[in-house]
Design a protein that fits this description.
- Helices cover about 60% and strands about 5% of the residues.
- Strand 1, helix 19 and strand 2 form a beta-alpha-beta unit.
- The chain folds into two domains: about 325 residues, no CATH class; about 120 residues.
- It has about 525 residues and is an alpha/beta fold.
- The chain has a five-stranded mixed β-sheet with strand order 2-1-3-5-4, sandwiched between helices.
- It has 20 helices and five strands.
Length: about 525
Amino acid sequence: MFNLNQKNYFISFLLIGIFLLALFLRFLYFPQNIYFGFDQARDAFVSQQILKGDLKIVGPPTGVDGWFHGPLYYYIWAPIYFFSSGNPEAVAAFLRIVNAAGIFLVFAIGTVLFNKWTGVASAFLFAVSFEQSQYALYFNHPSLAVISVMIFYLGLSLLFFKKYKNGLIPALLGLGLSLQFEFVLMYLFLVFTILMLAFKKHLPPLDKKVLLLSSGGFLLTISTFLLSEIKFHFRSVSTLASLLPLVFGHTIGVAGYCQNIYLISQRFISDNFVSQEYLTCVLLVLLLIIVFARLFTKSEFRERLLFLLIWFFAGMLPYLNNKSATPLYYYSVASSVSLLIFVGFLINKVFQKSKIAAVLLLFIPLLSNMNLIMTYNNTGSIPTINVQSGMLLVDEEKIVDYIYQNAAGEKFAINGLTMPFFVNTTWSYLFQWYGLKRYHYLPVWGGQAAEGYPGNLKVITARSALPDKQYLIIEPDRGIRLPLVENFLREENYFSKVIKEEKIGNFLVQSREPI
């Protein structure tokens, strides 16, 4: 038996080991599996513009015209790009470390709701989770929302179940940060309201100091939204009126929404516990039976389980009107953590009766997740996260090297079949950051380039003014409509002919000469 100090020391030792395990799994295949496409290049340009004093109060556009994500992550990435001389590998490493550190938040929530051993088991499940390893690999702003959403729920769990009045401060701070990192997480306003009503009898007295600090922290985190609304004459508010019919129109119907709930729930199971399809359904049904059995019986944990259940189903709200056969992965960011904590709670209960059985229950998700990690993570984030697969930084660097070495110091032009179409942002960044540093000169962009996108390469549309050495980079075409691809290549063949073709990763590089 441990005394209190020995037990705390042992738990700290376990948490350090779990953190190191999480780091190992997230850095497996690094840096070969870093995804670097248009979004990543755009954000790299913007982050470096901030370093030059061009401050931003809006982030990238959302899927709704007139609404934008928060710009906070630009300011987080800016110093990393500064100290790494613009190397995307540094930001990718930072995101993996941040995600791995999430094990401490999971431990804290599990401990607040149940006990430290539940926290340890939950942290282990988070560490080995394939889903979380994918968020760690996802080189974009929603990956940071894993942490902010957990801060939100940690604050509320402290507020309700430890009657810690200061818990409201991290709850509202997490809410504001979540809005910054992924705008669809505004549904957490509704979740906050539901939880405050459901657990109002658990609320401790809130004094003015707590209310001021929590509201002040929240306003600080959303200050960029407030500034942008003032500057752009409340355009988001005016857009809201046209958006509400889409959100509450229920065009997919009850059956469609239930289908979405099933798909997301099944994904939570397969990407965290058991990846075999037939076992996924069985485990999902079994967990639901256990939850509802405990909810409708007199249990000391009933209200804590209700808290986790609300958290779990809250992640389904963004799919209320989603018609896609493969709903976007990150809309339910961190919702599965509620399931990890619940399973951690069950494993702790089993541990009290049979230590061997509990260890086996932890071993099953470890094997399942390791199989998924070793199958998919070597090629970066999965297609349901990034539409355009195969945009790996290591291959892009090889392309830049190949073109410069083939050009042998002579002037040359590049063009690209890109996604988005006619946008040269990705290659402009790669040739400027990587190519210029190694070879000390830049190519020109020889073709159409859409205006309004970041990029520093000189654009020459007059084919007669291009250098004789020309290269066409054909990106992985998943997500690009086939007629666009055919028309693009047909037009290129009017002006130049292929003299050599090289396949690098999922890319095709053509050396061309003018006709």
